[in-house]
Structures are given as structure tokens and as C-alpha cells.
Specification:
- This protein is α+β, with helices and mostly antiparallel strands.
- It contains five helices and nine strands; from the N terminus they run H-E-E-E-H-E-H-E-H-E-E-E-E-H.
- The longest helix has 35 residues, at 3-37.
- The relative contact order is 0.18.
């Protein structure tokens, strides 16, 4: 083998070795990122049992949601401030979930249950073009709803409706809560943050897969 050929062979081997040394750490880095992207979501507690009524007047309990991930929101139909935005956000989530074939449910709990009867909630659902096949609007005993909100889903909900007061005298959190099919809370997402909502859609789709 001539000196020129030996040099060319050595050069090719050196290039291959250098490529391998660079490629292995890069591949490990990509794998690491992939593992982090698919890591389990945290658990923030478990939703306790509750017994309420949906927009069709049918019993609605925690077991009604068993086996399917769901996203919870707290609203009321007379709300003059954040609730219309929260409900529009839930509708957008429903539309995007259908496009991705992500099978999770939506639940809107009324924090003004004395006014928000099943009939009122049906009209409200129609107003926002909700698909009731995967979205329930829930009412019932005010104490049960408050307990489900504050002790169960860890969302503030206080006050009774009073038209003479600001916000009808009702204060409640506007975060959306992601719950898995076993009733475990897996995430909280700001309903006015598009990046948070994109994460919610991804996380819910992962739980549903």
C-alpha cells in the first residue's frame, strides 16, 4: 500500500470515529428529551365521591366519569365576567380534541346551582354549541358543589348568588383541572393562557391514549 493510500484510509477511519463520538451523545440527548416528554404527569390528589345532576336531569357522579380522563371547569350561567370566556375555551378544547380523536370528557360545574337548573344548563349548552356526547353541565346541592370544588378539585368557590353584588356575589377559580380515568388530579391550567391550553390538550390526549 502506498503512503498516499495509507493516509486516505487513516483519514476515512478518523472521520468515522469522529462522527461516532459526536453522534452517540447526540442520540442519547434526543432519547433523554423523548423520555422527559413522555414522563408521567404529576398527581395532585384524588377527587372524592360526589352525587349531582346533569343537564338532562340524570344523576351524575364521580363514577359517571370512571375510566375516561376529564377536564373540569367551574362556571355559572349568569356570570358577567370570566365564565363566558372559560366556556368558549372548553368548546375550543372539545373541537380540537375531536380533530385529534382524543377521547376525554369535559365537565362544567355550576357554582350557582339554585338558578342553574338542568333546563337552564341545557339552554346554556345550546348557546355555546356544546356537544353533549362528551361534555356535561352539572348542578345540584350547593354544599356538595362547593365541597367538590374546594376539597376535591382544589378550586376556590364561595358565595351565594346576589344580583346586587359584584359578580353576583360569587367568586370562583377559573383554572381548568385535568383528571384521569381513576379520579386522580393530574394538572391545573390557566384558562386564559394559550400555551397552557395547548399543554392541557396534549396532556389530556396522552391520558386518553
Amino acid at each position: 500500500m502506498t503512503g498516499a493510500r495509507r493516509w486516505l484510509r487513516w483519514a476515512r477511519v478518523a472521520v468515522l470515529r469522529a462522527t461516532f463520538v459526536v453522534a452517540v451523545p447526540f442520540a442519547a440527548s434526543v432519547a433523554s428529551v423523548g423520555c422527559r416528554a413522555h414522563a408521567d404527569l404529576p398527581t395532585y390528589g384524588t377527587v372524592p365521591a360526589f352525587a349531582l345532576t346533569d343537564q338532562a336531569g340524570k344523576p351524575f357522579t364521580r363514577d359517571s366519569l370512571k375510566g375516561t380522563p376529564w377536564v373540569a371547569a367551574f362556571v355559572f350561567t349568569r356570570c358577567p365576567t370570566a365564565c363566558p370566556r372559560v366556556t368558549r375555551t372548553m368548546r375550543q378544547l372539545q373541537l380540537e380534541a375531536a380533530q385529534r380523536n382524543a377521547r376525554f370528557r369535559l365537565v362544567s360545574f355550576s357554582v350557582d346551582p339554585d338558578f342553574d337548573t338542568p333546563a337552564v344548563l341545557r339552554r346554556y349548552a345550546d348557546e355555546y354549541q356544546a356537544d353533549l356526547g362528551s361534555w356535561s353541565f352539572v348542578t345540584g346541592n350547593a354544599d356538595v358543589i362547593q365541597k367538590t370544588a374546594e376539597q376535591g378539585l382544589k378550586i376556590a368557590a364561595e358565595g351565594r348568588a346576589d344580583p346586587t353584588k359584584a359578580n353576583f356575589g360569587i367568586n370562583h377559580g377559573t383554572q381548568l383541572v385535568l383528571v384521569d380515568g381513576q379520579g386522580n388530579i393530574r394538572g391545573y391550567y390557566a384558562s386564559n393562557d394559550q400555551e397552557a391550553l395547548a399543554r392541557l390538550l396534549d396532556d389530556a390526549a396522552r391520558l386518553a391514549s
